[in-house]
Design brief:
The structure holds two protein chains of two kinds. Chain A is mainly β. In chain A, the strands form two sheets. In chain A, strands 2, 4, 5, 9, 10 and 11 form a six-stranded mixed β-sheet that branches. In chain A, strands 1-3-8-7-6 form a five-stranded antiparallel β-sheet, with no helix packed on it. Chain A is globular and about 40 Å long. By secondary structure, chain B is mainly beta. In chain B, strands 2, 4, 5, 6, 9, 10 and 11 form a seven-stranded mixed β-sheet that branches. Chain B has a four-stranded antiparallel β-sheet with strand order 1-3-8-7, with no helix packed on it. Chain B starts with a strand and ends with a strand. In chain B, 0% of the residues lie in helices and 49% in strands. Classes of the chains: A mainly beta, B mainly beta. At the A-B interface, strand 5, strand 9 and strand 10 of A face strand 4 and strand 5 of B.
């Protein structure tokens, strides 16, 4: 069974700090990785996708992928209260199904 | 506006009464998928479709059926709903089901909250 694991949280950070969200995956052939943000009662929305080892930056967000360690992370710089949400990590291999982690709840305190 | 729509948004039904949740996308996406989301378990894939007339089981397909007769529509059918199918359901679509395709994010519908009594 392919699995994606995340710390459920809640992870609390003060406004302006860096939030670090982590994810590990079990399927070594996973090729694509995604971070989604989900506000309570809403549908997930994509923040970042990453396919290659290393870092990928988009505004305040940086995704990091280490395939040798089967580890994906998301850094949120200058965290804002509006970043408070559940963050879902997902992987996709050569098979056609996506596998999601249980999500990490982030709380940014004003 | 590019979007994925689902209907109904909320549904309360009784055990054994067949129901269909519709899903439609207007982005000409090849790949469509159904998920259920339960507290502590995250999003679990029920069924997915790579293209018209091509469907396959996800991680939790028991008790569900799907069909893909047209590219834009991907209905989810519960032939005999049971209380353990009470959940929040999301339909999603993406350009392609292949890996490493640029801009291949999944777009999610607004969700359908189903309660089976």
């Amino acid at each position: 069974q392919k699995e994606v694991e995340q710390n459920s949280g809640p992870l609390s950070v003060p406004e302006g700090a860096i939030a670090s969200l982590n994810c590990t995956y079990s399927d070594r052939v996973s090729q694509s990785f995604f971070w989604y943000r989900q506000y309570s009662g809403k549908s997930p929305e994509l923040i970042m996708s990453i396919y290659s080892n290393g870092d990928k930056e988009d505004g305040r967000f940086t995704a990091q992928l280490n395939k040798a360690s089967q580890y994906v992370s998301l850094l949120i710089r200058d965290s804002q209260p509006s970043d408070s949400a559940t963050y879902l990590c997902a992987s996709k291999g050569y098979g056609q199904n996506f596998v999601f982690g249980p999500g990490t709840r982030l709380s940014v305190l004003p | 506006e590019a979007q994925v729509t689902q209907n109904p948004r909320y549904l309360i039904t009784v055990t054994g009464k067949k129901l269909t949740v519709t899903c439609s996308q207007n982005m000409n996406h090849e790949y469509m998928s159904w998920y259920r989301q339960d507290p502590g378990l995250g999003l679990r894939q029920i069924y997915y479709s790579m293209n018209v007339e091509v469907t396959d089981k996800g991680d939790v397909p028991e008790g569900y059926k799907v069909s893909r007769k047209e590219k834009r529509n991907f209905p989810l059918i519960l032939e005999s709903p049971s209380p353990n199918q009470t959940s929040l359901y999301f339909c999603a679509s993406s350009l392609s089901g292949r890996v490493r395709v640029p801009n291949n994010e999944q777009f999610f519908g607004p969700g359908t909250r189903l309660t089976v009594l």
